[in-house]
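Contributing new complexes? Match this layout with NAP.
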Amino acid sequence: MNSFVPSCEGVDARLVPCRVLYNGQKIPCIGLGTFGSDHVSPQEVASVVSEALKLGYRYIDCAACYGNEKEVGEVLEKAVKGGLDRQELFILSKVWNDCHAPDKLVRACEKSLNDLRLDYLDCYLIHWPFPNYHAPGCDVNSRNPESRPYIHEEFMDSWRAMEGLVKRGLVKSIGVSNVTIPKLELILRDADIKPAVNEMELHPTMQQGRLFQYCIDHGIQPIGYSPIGSPARPERDRTPEDISDIELPEIVSIAGRHEIHPATVCVKWAYQRGQIPIPFTTKPRNALSNLKTVLSDPLSPEEMEAVAACERNCRLIKGQVFLWKGAKSWLDLWDVDGTIPGWDSYK
Ligand SMILES: NC(=O)c1ccc[n+]([C@@H]2O[C@H](COP(=O)([O-])OP(=O)(O)OC[C@H]3O[C@@H](n4cnc5c(N)ncnc54)[C@H](OP(=O)(O)O)[C@@H]3O)[C@@H](O)[C@H]2O)c1
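Output block (do not edit by hand):
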């Protein structure tokens, strides 16, 4: 039998609140991440996606570079053929850094559509604002000699190709990821179709308050990646100064009061603050807790304030592998002094 049967333990997907993008498109207020990193196979990720759809998830956060769109696509096709309404789904994918050239970008989108077995994507993002490729799983100190700083004219060539995808009906919304206010100012100035979302690192110890507010003020929906602080990220993405969100006393104490896991406190806070969290998990029971937590027992204003006070500017995904020759530190990727560094770092 090939029918899509929602799980009796799950949530009625129609009860999960949506946010509305500036173009009127609806997006569920929580999604499922699909980056298995080095340790979760494509089949395992696809299996969690399959369970998550039955549990009530409708937004699946994909990307070509996660290396599992084919396997996720099989699950999506099976669910839709089995009766899940395609229009209920919100499928997001991202173009990887080696496909920023306009012709490659269009082909990359067509490949993701083909792999995901879809006629259109609900949203397509430029994954990083740098066209800087690195091999999957490479060492944090490895550098590609071809790497470049952010060059706005080149980025806009890619963005025009993104706009073309919308005009062709292949993509409903387009957006950015890992960009900063200085970059967004240029993009908003020059775009014909402005970005609908910005996927950015957001968790209690990395709240990016100014960028978050800038996005809200400009009608760009923040999507929060690594919402739980990515506790299973690979060794190469760890530094001694990193802080674990789910071990912070404030988060642990709130979790105790609500009798939930600290991870779900992070998800609850994210939802209530206004970003869309996209937690990853290998376990259907955790996927369900994360989904249910947005529907129940909200944090009090005092608890929201206590989480706000956990801000430590603790960036976990620093992006060292994207650095170019002449860049001084990973901070060059994040425009930390309010300007965009060129070939020789900040002037
Ligand atoms: N745009 C970008 O550049 C970018 C960068 C990074 C990530 N992302 C996206 O963001 C998604 C999420 O980020 P992430 O994977 O780095 O980290 P994350 O979602 O913050 O953390 C995932 C980890 O949290 C654990 N977890 C999840 N729910 C839990 C629960 N209810 N209780 C206890 N533990 C729980 C999972 O363990 P279990 O497996 O044991 O549940 C997993 O190890 C990615 O999958 C990807 O889609 C995007």
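Reviewers usually confirm one structural detail per submission. For this one: The mean pLDDT is 96.
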